[in-house]
Amino acid sequence: MVIHDPVHKTIILDEFEQILLNTRHVQRLRNIQQLGLADHVYPGANHTRFEHSIGTMHMASVIGHSLSLDHEDILKIRIAGLLHDVGHSAFSHAVENVLRRNPQLQPVIKGRQFIKHESFSKDIISRIFPEDNYIARHVESKIGADPFHFFDEISKIATGDELSISRPYLAQIIAGDVDADRIDFLLRDSYHTGVSFGLIDVDQIIGSLLIKDGNVVLGSVEGSGYGNDMALTAAESLLISRAHHYTAIIHNPRTQAARVMLLSSLEDALERFRNLHGLDATKKEIICFFTEYNDSDMLNFIRSNASESSVKLLSDLRDGRLYEPVARLSQKMLRPSTRMSLSTIARHGVATKRLELRIARELGDVLVDLTVASGVPKSMRIAMDNEDGFFYDESALANGLVRAISRQLSLTAFSHPGIVKDSDSGAVLSELRRVVDEISPRLLNFTREDQYLPIEGIILLFYAVHTLFTEQKREFISVPRLRHITWLYRTIRELGAFQRLKNLFDYSFHERYGFPYSEKVFEDIQVLVAMGIVDEDLRYYEKDGRFRQSYEYVLTWEGVQYGGSLSDSYRMEFDEMISYLSMNKHSIKRDMVTIPSNRYVIKKRS
Hints:
CATH topology of one domain: Hypothetical protein af1432
Strand content: 5-15%
Number of helices: 27
Radius of gyration: 25 Å
Mean pLDDT: 90
Distance between the termini: 62 Å
Strand order of the largest sheet: 5-6-9-10
């Protein structure tokens, strides 16, 4: 079978891939738009998850051939790329947002709560495909494998579950930091939106990928310095495109308006459906959102179940009468403590919903959307002569882009066109700022009563180190700067073993790089840097005749204030941290930075 694709040109599918392509689970993706409602801003952006899945399959095989994988591995990554989105819900990530905001609606399958589309994809691939007799017979006769074992492995490759398979690089090709999925959607989204953020050198990127110690890494086959430099440059272009993708599409106010209108009407429809049919029936319906429904089915569900006002909202969306932004706050307009509060709230769905509803009540007749960026590279390594390093450690540009993505935050109030006059927008913005400053700390306190917030555990750890070592002498202050992020990884893992601290430091670690490493810890530290709670300093050092760079961390003045407020909320946990660190002070590798007190306080506030 030959497919003519506007991005990759000619794509050829073999017999088995055609069989899988024609299943109802893959065909459903024909009517799920890749970018949800972005076509309200970019009229050409009506491409679907179906064509993206075919493109991901193609890119996977291109990467596989470049890495000289054998036929069996290329077969697996092609199938994984084709099937990686079979559990995607209608309208991009709208339903996932609903489940994060309403945990009582999260469906349970085999004793596990399902929230993300990856969980549904894994379940469909591993359970439903091998139960199809025609597909199963083909796997047995043509591939010579047990269907359940075969599709179980495919499901892990397709969803990036690299720790559960013997060859992690197969999963990294589909769902890693530089992967087939990301390359295809950046190219495809750029093509269909007409925005040139997807101008990446695909050949250079793919040619810069190697397999080393079972992992996909960046590097040069010759191992030359220039070759490694070009590998970094290629990967940097992908990250630049990712950053621009958020700015141009995700944080576009009109895209946000369409998203918040859909989300409001969908939540209303689900609430009314639940009141009429019960919680169990609602959860079964939500499973259909990920396994049966396409975009049209979702709209029909909303029209059939939502209130009159929500149906009117949906009609406005259909007819292009998008709500207009009447006030918008970005990270540049917020002080660090408020930034940090909103960033934490935005990563916890229930808190986000409470904040948005409270602001809507305070401002009146508005819809509110709080959005933060995600998806920073966390584990991509670069192969060097004697020692591998992280992509973001070897590239100052990549490190800066990680922070740039991490700090992208927007809080926007939307209203029906004409409700708020331009002359009143300044007053609405001031009121929005006042409400956010007032209620975000209180809302976080309320959230802490329901659950621990691990990122606050990291802030407390920084604050505990600051408390132990900071010295004030006359007009100068000496503050500790941590030399190695690896100390943070080790300490967080050790503290997480304490009974009282295990929920506050609820992070998973692995030691594939020779030390305890947690992608989530790295991501949270980058958020702290981006929000102005922690300063990250670049340092160069020489090792084995080569200059390398590393990053050191010190709590900002705003971080000190924020950490101090947290220590009251986590008094017992904080005291246990202090006790542990006091007994292990000698192991805390740090430098003491002495500066005038007024510079530390005033400069950081300015």
